[in-house]
Amino acid sequence: MTNTTSAKATALLAALKEKGHRTTKTRSLVISYLVQTEHPVAAHDLITMLKKQGRDVNKTTVYRELLFLKDEGIINEIDLLEGQKRYELADPHHHHHHLVCTKCKSIRCVEMPNDLDALEQRIKKQHHFHVTGHILEFFGLCKKCTR
Amino acid sequence: MTNTTSAKATALLAALKEKGHRTTKTRSLVISYLVQTEHPVAAHDLITMLKKQGRDVNKTTVYRELLFLKDEGIINEIDLLEGQKRYELADPHHHHHHLVCTKCKSIRCVEMPNDLDALEQRIKKQHHFHVTGHILEFFGLCKKCTR
DNA sequence: CTCCATGCAAACACTTTGCATCAAG
DNA sequence: CTTGATGCAAAGTGTTTGCATGGAG
Question: Whole-prediction pTM value?
């Protein structure tokens, strides 16, 4: 959890600025964090992270920032049946799903490009339903919890 | 939405009774409804249904009944990113997923047996993660909303 | 100086809990 | 009667809103 702003984070901030949005301390930290975190985070995680970085932000700000980033298409909202939402960087080039361990609650990402293309084609033909997206999450036991 | 209790509902109630659980009016109605409803229902839907049937139950009762049926393995809980949970009969012989229309919010079930078996095998080999279940929901536009 | 961004308190929606009462078996 | 089922009120949890203030550009 370093303070350094990656090239990717910088680019995202620049793009937002271009659109007239401001580069706040909180916004930079949130984006930097999301860029370098490999698993989806909850609002609560961000509040904790910001506190650690010395920013005592209000939860409202965090929720609003997440809403903002979602509307900007920068992050995706996902739900892993935990009673809270999680967010992760929207990265179309790294389409992935999650392995959720039902014992230790760990979340791990797995990339599987084009995994459901065939299925979606079938759905379109059979049900005349135009699929624009899907959620696919696996539940089970992780490596550690299996032994 | 008839009042008749199907054979399946009767069997489920009998099995519960066998285990020492009681056959209440509310329980029969909830089970009957879940058996004959083809799409997942929210707690709110059940309360409405019960009111229509002349049972002015408290929401607490409904939530407790759903928890009970879930613990008994009779129903499954699912989440379609709506901010509320939905429940449907747990039927291993009719493994299915949902097509959620992002425009009219309709939910439709599609059966696709063994759809992800290959994928789950791959996950086990590559990540040593033992998959016990998954959720797969498709979002997009239904037949009506496409035109 | 102009707006976007923020803090605070309060409201919200959905769900859960404690405790006294009711009713199925 | 016994104990599971229920009602009611209140609390809990995650999230959102209204409004006044603060700060980036």
Answer: 0.79
State whether B76 and B116 are in the same domain. Answer: no
Q: Answer whether A142 sits within 8 Å of B129, measured CB to CB.
A: yes
A67 and A48 inside one domain: yes
What is the total count of domains within chain A?
Answer: 2
Residue B51, amino acid: K
Q: How far is A136 from chain B (nearest CA, A)?
A: 4
Cβ-defined contact of B120 to A138 (cutoff 8 Å): yes
The whole-angstrom distance between B4's CA and the closest CA on chain A is: 31
**Burial status of residue A101 (CB atoms within 10 A of its CB: 0-12, 13-18, 19 or more):** buried
Residues of chain A with Cβ-Cβ distance to B129 below 8 Å are: 99, 101, 108, 138, 140-143
pLDDT tens string, chain A, 147 residues long: the values are: 444 678 999 999 999 999 999 999 999 999 999 999 978 999 999 999 999 999 999 999 999 999 999 999 999 998 887 889 999 998 767 788 999 888 888 889 898 877 788 889 999 999 999 998 888 889 889 999 988
Q: Which two tokens stand for residue B65?
A: 């009944």
Domain span holding position A106: 95-147
B65 shares its domain with B107: no
**B80 and B105 share a domain?**
no
Domain check: are B114 and B69 in the same one? no
Residues A83 and A107 in one domain: no
User: Phi and psi at residue A126, in whole multiples of 5°?
Assistant: -75, -35
For residue A83, say whether its CB is under 7 Å from any atom of strand D: yes
Q: Are B103 and B144 in contact (CB under 8 A)?
A: no
B147 touches chain A (CB under 8 A): no
